[in-house]
Structure formats: C-alpha cells, structure tokens
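call fold(seq) -> tokens
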Amino acid sequence: MPFEQGPIRPPSEAESLLLRISRNCPWNKCLFCPVYKGKKFSRRSVEEIKGDILAFKEAELKIKALSMRHGYGGAVTTEVMELLYRSKPELFQVGLWLYRGGRNVFLQDADGLAMAPAKLVEVLKFLKEQFPSIDRITTYARSKTAAKRSVEQLTALREAGLTRVHIGMETGNDALLQAMCKGVTAAEQIEGGKKVKEAGLELSEYVLLGLGGRADWEAHILDTVAVLNAINPHFIRLRTLALRPGIPLLEKVQRGEFQIQEDEGTVREVKLLLENLRVTSYLASDHILNLLEEIEGQLPWEMPRLLAVVNTYLEMSPERRANFRLGRRLGYYRKLRDMEDKNLFAQVEVVRRRLQEQGEDLENFLVRQMARFV
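ret:
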C-alpha cells in the first residue's frame, strides 16, 4: 500500500479509514496487552502523515476514474469493488472505505493524543480539507496522556475535527493497575476522562473483564464502577481477558500467581458491574471474546433487560451453560437465543461429548479457543 497502517482498531471503527499518526505504543508495559510487545514507539512527522492523506486522495481519484471508465458514473459500487480486488489491490482499502460511505477515520496507533496538540490540529485540518465529507474522526488514547492535556488543547482538537476518544481504562483498582504495569492511577483516569468530556469530545472507556483473576474480581469491578460513575463516559465497552504465548501476564499464570477467571466468573463480574453503575452511558459488549454479546443498551433505561440476560445465563443448568460456552467459543452461537435452534444445540452437544470421551478438560479447551482471537 502507498501508505502506512498500524495493527489494530476498535471493532466500532470497522468502517473507518485508518490513518497512522504514530507507530506502536509510547508506554507498552501493560502485562495483559499482546499488541506492541518488542516494537519501538516512534512519532510520524506532520509531513509524513500529510503524505499518506494525499495518497488516500490520489487513491480516491483513481477509484472514481476506474468507476467512470467502466460505466458506473464515479460511484463505488459492488462491481467497482470487485474490479479493485482483481486488478488494483493496493486501492482496495480506500475503495472499501468509500463503498461504506467514506465518513469515518480512525487515527492509529495506541495513543493519538501523544502527538503534540498543535501538530495534531494541523493534521486534522488538512484531513478535513482533503475529505470534506468526513464527519467522525476518532483515536485511541491513554488516560494519563489525556490527563496531561489541558481542556483548551483538547477543545482545539475537537474544533479541528476530532470527535471521539477511545481509552483503555481496563480497571479502576489501583492495586491492579500497579500489578498490571498500567502506568496510571484511578485518579488520573478520572481526570483524563473528565477533561475529554469537558472539551466536548465523545468518550469511550474500555473495561477488561477478568483482569482481577479469580482472587480480586470483586475489588476490580467495584473500583472500576467507582471510576466509571465519576466520569460518566458516553460509551462503556466490555472486553474479556484472554492470553496467548508472548503476553507477559501468561508467565504469572504459569507460576501460579494469577488464576484466569472462568466464564462463570466474568458473567458475575458483568452482573456486579450492572448492579452498581450509576451512569447514562451506552454499554456495549462488542467483541468476540465476550461470552454474552447481547449485553448492549442505553443505561440506565435498559438496565432491567441487561440484568435479565445475565440472570438467564446464570440460572441455566450447568450442562446448558457448558453447551452455550462451547458453542459461543466455536462460533455456533452469538446470543443466548441461538440455543433455541435444536439443530445447532445438537451439533454443539456432539462436540461436547466428543471432548469428554477424549478426556479433554473443557476449561483448558475454552482457554485455548479464546487465545486464538487475541
């Protein structure tokens, strides 16, 4: 591709164009994070970033010219996407962005606010000049970085085009934040979140279910709730801890210093979270690692429905819970109601019984399955 691209973006930014403004993570010490280990953080210059924006623009012009030549009037249609896939793969990402509306941009990598505010303002203005149709620009950020910025600096970013900040809060428990090398305190998380909101930016905070393991799950959730209640972010997004080789926290598991929370435990974490939240946030369970995908709705109004989902799961028999967990991790189910499909249920039961016959421990099997999605 004629432009740089980082490794990740939030699921909610699936339709966004990815513009890399820095490489990797400036902190990169969190024990649970698999993304940037072994990679050095570096800043991209304004000139480099503008070069990528111009490359996006050139790609847009080429795609529209291709559309015109083949009789589609400059529109990015399914047929145009097929042409790009076959003959112009280097243009495919920009084509897909245009096909989906060309309205959202996500700034990569791990901490967009680490860029000097004045330089980021320049980048945002240039981006909007080249693509006036853009109406949403978002980025990941560390809460500590947000706390270091003034409300005036953050407001200037909003006025230049930034609309939403995604912050990986993970937990509000200070002991866990220190143990996991997060490099921030609960007080700094509150300060950073409040500043983002005061500047008029949308704020999305991420909670990592299971981060307290089996020993400290209640403290993890209750202290996290306290931080969320203090901030009242626009969005709260749930994630579930999963580990694979190369993630530092796995070494603690292997030494017996940390016990991975089971699905039953993470569901109880969700219940405790819901029972204690006092916010007007939109709660989303928008990740494949989460067991209960249907935990999504506007708080506090949809709290009864969300708690009913949790209780439905917890009230199922152990056999049905085992069936759902296995079906969810193998991709048979997305939501609890999918179990009502007798054919799907029977297929999952066949797999479950086969694992039993082979002497396979279900918990170990599910842990390995989840690691595939990390």
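The radius of gyration is 22 Å.
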